[in-house]
Design brief:
By secondary structure, the chain is α+β, with helices and mostly antiparallel strands. It has 2 domains: 1-74 and 87-122, no CATH class; 138-245, no CATH class. Helices cover 49% and strands 6% of the residues. Strands 1-3-4-2 form a 4-stranded antiparallel sheet, covered by helices on one side. The longest helix has 28 residues, at 91-118. The two termini are 33 Å apart.
C-alpha cells in the first residue's frame, strides 16, 4: 500500500535550504556545506519515505550540494601574483538562494497587503461589534511550514526506532480513517500536540499515513499548525470557522 502526497501549496527544495540555514543560524553567504548537506539528506529520506510528488526536485538539489561539498574538499591551488582568485563553489547556489528569497519576500509582502486591503472598511460601511469583546485575545503562536512539520515527524521516527522484524501481516489503515482520527482527537481536546497523534506502539506505516493526513488537513485549511516559538512544540487545532461540534 502506497500513498503519494501532492503538495501544490507547500515549499520546495530551496525553501528547505533556507529553513536549514535559519535553523542552524548560519550566514547565507558562508554556508557550512558539509553540515547543511547532511541535514538536507536526512530530510530527503523523510520526503522519499512519504513519496512526495516532487521529491525529484529535492534529489536534484541534493546532488548539487554533494557536488559543491566535493569541490570544497579538493585541495586549493596556490594563488600566484596576477592569477585570478578561484571562485567559491557555493557562489552560484548563494545567488540562487538570495534571488529566490527576494521574490518570496515580495510575494509575502503583496499577500499581506492584499489581506490588509480585504479587511479595510470603506466609507459607508460599518462594523457591528459585540459588547464586551472589543479586546479579543489574539493567539500569538505563529503558523508553521511544511519543514517544521517534517522536523517534528523526523524527531518521532528517530526517537522510536524499532528493531526490524520481517513479518508479513495485513495493516488495515487508510488515509480517510486517519483523517477522521486526527479531526476527532483535535475536537476532543480543542487543540492537541503534534506528537500526541503518534503512538509508539503503532506500526511505522500508521505513522506515515497519519502524517500525510495532517498534511492534507493543513493543505485543505481544515486544521492549522502553530508554534509558540521557533522550532518549538507544534500544536494542531481546527481552523476558525470549521465546525467542531
Amino acid at each position: 500500500m502506497t500513498y503519494k502526497v501532492k503538495l501544490d501549496t507547500f515549499e520546495g527544495p530551496l525553501d528547505l535550504l533556507l529553513f536549514l540555514i535559519k535553523k542552524n543560524e548560519v550566514d547565507i553567504y558562508d554556508i557550512p556545506v558539509s553540515k547543511i548537506t547532511q541535514q538536507f539528506l536526512e530530510y530527503l529520506d523523510i520526503i522519499k519515505l512519504l513519496d512526495i510528488e516532487f521529491a525529484s526536485d529535492f534529489i536534484l538539489l541534493a546532488s548539487t550540494l554533494l557536488r559543491i561539498k566535493a569541490q570544497m574538499l579538493l585541495p586549493k591551488p596556490s594563488i600566484e601574483e596576477d592569477e585570478e582568485v578561484v571562485e567559491d563553489p557555493r557562489q552560484e547556489l548563494v545567488y540562487r538562494l538570495l534571488e529566490y528569497k527576494r521574490f518570496k519576500d515580495v510575494a509575502e509582502n503583496l499577500s499581506e497587503k492584499e489581506e490588509f486591503a480585504r479587511n479595510l472598511y470603506t466609507r459607508g460601511s460599518f462594523k457591528i461589534e459585540s459588547p464586551g469583546f472589543a479586546d479579543e485575545l489574539v493567539d500569538e503562536r505563529a503558523d508553521v511550514s511544511l519543514f517544521d512539520l517534517v522536523t517534528a515527524f523526523k524527531t518521532i521516527v528517530e526517537k522510536n526506532k524499532k528493531v526490524v522484524v520481517h513479518r508479513v501481516r495485513m495493516l488495515n489503515v487508510n488515509l480517510e480513517e486517519r483523517i477522521e482520527f486526527v479531526i476527532s482527537r483535535i475536537k476532543e481536546y480543542g487543540e492537541i500536540n503534534f506528537t500526541a497523534l503518534f503512538e509508539p506502539t503503532d506500526d511505522k506505516l500508521v505513522w506515515i499515513v497519519t502524517f500525510i493526513a495532517i498534511l492534507e488537513l493543513v493543505k485543505n485549511q481544515v486544521i492549522m499548525a502553530l508554534q509558540s516559538e521557533t522550532f518549538g512544540e507544534i500544536i494542531l487545532r481546527m481552523l476558525d470557522g470549521i465546525e467542531t461540534a
